[in-house]
Amino acid sequence: MAVSVDNYRTDGSRVVVLIQAVKLRFSYRDREVLNGIDFIAEKGKVTVLMGRNGAGKTTLLKHFNGLLKPSSGKVLIDGEEVKYDRKSLLKVRKKVFYVFQNPDDQILSPTVWQDVAFGPRNLGLSGNDLEKVVKDALKAVGLEGYEKRLCSTLSGGEKRKLAIASALAMNSDYYIMDEPSANVDGDGFEMIVETVEKLRSDGKGVVVSTHDLDLAKAVGDRFYFMENGRIVWSGEKFNYRIARKLGIRTFAFGKVILSDQVNHAVKKVDYVAVQNGDASIERSFRIISGNAVFERAVLKAIEGYCVLFVCDDVERMAEKMEKYPIDVEILEE
Ligand SMILES: Nc1ncnc2c1ncn2[C@@H]1O[C@H](COP(=O)(O)OP(=O)(O)OP(=O)(O)O)[C@@H](O)[C@H]1O
Ligand SMILES: [Mg+2]
Questions:
Q1: With a cut of 70, which residues of the chain have pLDDT below it?
Q2: Which position among 21, 150, 212, 288 has the lowest Cβ density within 10 Å, counted as fewest Cβ atoms?
Q3: 48 - beta bridge partners?
């Protein structure tokens, strides 16, 4: 049987369970909003998409269940190219559930119970089976007792939870969630993290677009950063340096300045960290030296201090520091 190369990782191992965008382009009228996107979201993993307002995140996500059709390039689901006739789209939408950025776009029924029941009923569920699915979904998001409420009377955060409950009731293979933690309180946030983790452990593929660093860090297995319709970075460890550059909201912690020499022009540092015990440092500096210099320097920066870190290979050190929530600056001579 012929198998598409798309179904293999670069190391040759087989992957058939994923959503994939290949050289995807899309324009609203004559304005190109996606300029050639390559993207993979595996089943059993949480893929996080971040980037500025207007970067194109929602537009990209809407391609994953056929809500938008590429101007060129393609979307594959489990290795099969998405087609845009009615029958194919129904199949795709059963497999890939899209949770809208704005819950009002998704909630279509008068009452909470009806809204959650709508999808599974369309799939043929009825009676006790349907009751159970709806009950479990509402319980999972903390909306038990809301069954008879009119959807229009729910608060913003409650609508978000309802939208997620309706998604869960569908038992799809993939969940696309566009800013799921917008508008929710701390408990709602925990619920969303737990929901996403449960979906992952159930073997579902989840794609989350978010501006919420806490959510991204809590659930992300792989991160994609977007800018102006392009993927500009992707990786398995969150990269604070690039995130800041791309306007992704991060915490304002302290800073490490990397230099290959003790530079006395640096007046504002709180600590000087030296890896090789440099004796020539003025005693007015607070010195970090001896054991675990790297860890202690990073910790001081996370606490909000400015640390001058003296080491031989500043570029390599900058790379090592990328995964910490600190600013890293290389001091040019
Ligand atoms: N229906 C539309 N018609 C024309 N332009 C659109 C339409 N929808 C979105 N756009 C434009 O496409 C660009 C990308 O929008 P998109 O909603 O994908 O961004 P986003 O990354 O999801 O942003 P946000 O973080 O604000 O949700 C924006 O410049 C937006 O104004
Ligand atoms: Mg958006």
A1: 1-16, 252, 263-267, 277-284, 333
A2: 150
A3: 208, 223
